[in-house]
Specification:
Structural class: alpha/beta
Largest sheet: 7 strands, mixed
Radius of gyration: 25 Å
Distance between the termini: 11 Å
Number of helices: 17
Helix content: 25-40%
Strand content: 15-25%
Length: 519
């Protein structure tokens, strides 16, 4: 089971032989389409290939000699996969492998390719980054520190691979060091401190304190006078231009031959002439003025990691139906370690933050639970399922204010099952559904009650793939039953998040808004 530390401050791939590096120095998908028509093979030639690629790679395709015509559609960002499906593409060539997580209706035969980047700042800010450690983790700490004047400059994370990977690298460094809750928290702080620039403008710093997240290709044509380029010391953020033939093209002999010919034509000079590294990652001769990239690359951002970045940037990506059940047993009066704040106040503050991050068309339900709080039920509904628009947010605030500890037991097992079933009954197709139960204790003083084995059996019987619910139990403090509880949640792929500090609790609720507590 994953363990998470408090944040300090607040498949196999087949690569297209092209690499670009991201160095420290808006809108959704941009789509430009060429006309296309049926593709009859020409005598002695290959059939036409329909290709969807990033705007940054399209010029390379237009320079190569192939045995047949190329029908090129340019589509960037999160909408590119859907565009590739819409035009029945033979090949999708995005600017990073992370977009692979959402291919939509496009059936793919194989996986991705590569590119990389850097960080650029004014000399004084660069010195500050270097003193802090000179890596992505150091940058994350600086930009998220209370009162910090360090700011980021980046492209729209939903519009291009370098925008996604630049901000993703900040979150990824925190994820690797301190866990996924802390990563979501860091991104939530960092994004409002980021200046997003247009896709055709290099993400270079212009003001003191700014740090630009810039690809090597952008740096080669940019003026860096008065700025310092840093190759992060902990990890290399590497864009991966990816080769994704469709399943249909891969099994068609004529189109497969055309694809193989195109791949061969791209190797070598066309890529280096475009400023892309080869598959061995060696720098180009023109890179003598850039600091060498020596740190190991991050892995390709997985779907949940991509969700973190996009949900941080776009409120609509945080649209979800959320049920939160809060333990109101007497132990919630206890103070949070190293603070003067009662546990229940910490939870009130965290649920308030969660509601503030959700968009108006999200739904939030709030329960209090103990033992027999509503007749035979161990929980009481403080706010039923409903949208946050209109008076919804005020009703949530009123419900949060009524969360008050009482002298009661902890009907944890019965409440977990009831919350799961309630979220399942309210499921809306196409909207993520979450049931989250917060407790600082164990199942106790509840009679009658489900055993852990019975809870497991009931969840197994209730599971319905047509109405999926993300179930999580957040435990605060020492909880000896957490491992046994985790096993009971396995039939629905539930998750136990064991937390011990106030920062971790706040981060967990922010993580919930950014896509759920599952990693």
């Amino acid at each position: 089971m994953p363990q998470h530390r408090a944040r300090k401050t607040y498949s196999r791939w087949r690569w297209l032989p092209a690499v670009a590096a991201l160095v420290l120095v808006g809108a959704f998908a941009v789509v430009l389409t060429t006309a296309y028509a049926p593709r009859p093979p020409v005598d002695g030639a290959c059939p036409a290939l329909r290709i969807v690629t990033a705007e940054s790679f399209a010029p390379i395709l237009r320079t190569v000699a192939t045995c047949g015509p190329l029908e090129i559609t340019v589509a960037d960002g999160r909408g590119a996969a859907a565009r590739a499906a819409a035009v029945d593409a033979d090949l999708w060539l995005p600017d990073d492998a992370a977009w692979r997580g959402a291919p939509g209706r496009l059936a793919l035969a194989e996986a991705p390719a590569a590119d990389a980047g850097a960080v650029v700042a004014d000399n004084a800010t660069a010195a500050q980054v270097k003193r802090a450690g000179g890596g992505w983790g150091a940058l994350a700490e600086l930009v998220t520190a209370p009162g910090s004047r360090v700011r980021l400059v980046a492209h729209d994370p939903g519009g291009s691979g370098d925008g996604l990977l630049g901000l993703g690298a900040v979150g990824e460094a925190v994820w690797l060091a301190d866990g996924m809750d802390a990563s979501a928290d860091a991104l939530a702080v960092a994004f409002p401190r980021t200046r997003i620039v247009a896709a055709d403008t290099p993400a270079l710093p212009e003001r003191p304190g700014e740090v630009g997240l810039v690809t090597e290709r952008e740096l080669r044509g940019a003026t860096t006078t008065g700025r310092t380029v840093i190759a992060p010391a902990d990890h290399t953020a590497q864009l991966r231009y990816s080769w994704f033939p469709s399943a249909a093209a891969a099994v068609d002999p004529e189109r497969a031959r055309a694809l193989a010919g195109l791949r061969g034509a791209l190797v070598g000079r066309p890529l280096t002439a475009a400023g892309l590294r080869g598959p061995d990652g060696r720098p180009l001769p023109s890179d003598d003025d850039l600091p060498p990239l020596t740190a190991a690359p991050f892995d390709v951002l997985g779907p949940h990691h991509v969700d973190h970045v996009l949900a941080t940037a776009y409120a609509q990506d945080r649209r979800a139906d959320v049920l939160v059940a809060v333990d109101v047993s007497g132990s919630m009066r206890a103070l949070v370690p190293a603070t003067t704040e009662p546990r229940i106040a910490l939870v009130r503050r965290s649920v308030t933050a969660l509601a503030g991050l959700l968009p108006d068309d999200a739904r939030l339900s709030l329960w209090a639970f103990g033992t027999h709080l509503d007749g035979d039920r161990d929980y009481r509904v403080l706010r039923p399922d409903g949208d946050l628009e209109g008076d919804g947010r005020r009703s949530v605030e009123g419900a949060i204010d009524t969360l008050t500890p009482t002298d009661t037991g902890t009907g944890l097992h019965d409440t977990v099952l009831a919350a799961y079933r309630s979220a399942q009954a309210a499921y809306r197709e196409g909207t993520p559904s979450h049931a989250v139960v917060f407790t600082d204790g164990r199942n106790e003083a509840d009679n009658p009650t489900l055993s852990l084995d019975q809870l497991r059996d009931e969840l197994k019987a209730a599971a319905d793939p047509r109405r999926p619910v993300n179930l999580a139990v957040i435990t605060f403090g020492a909880e000896p039953d957490a491992e046994a509880l985790q096993k009971a949640l396995e039939p629905v792929q539930g998750y136990v998040d064991r937390l011990t500090t106030a920062d971790e609790v706040g981060a967990a609720f922010i993580h919930l808004a950014a896509g759920g507590l599952h990693g």
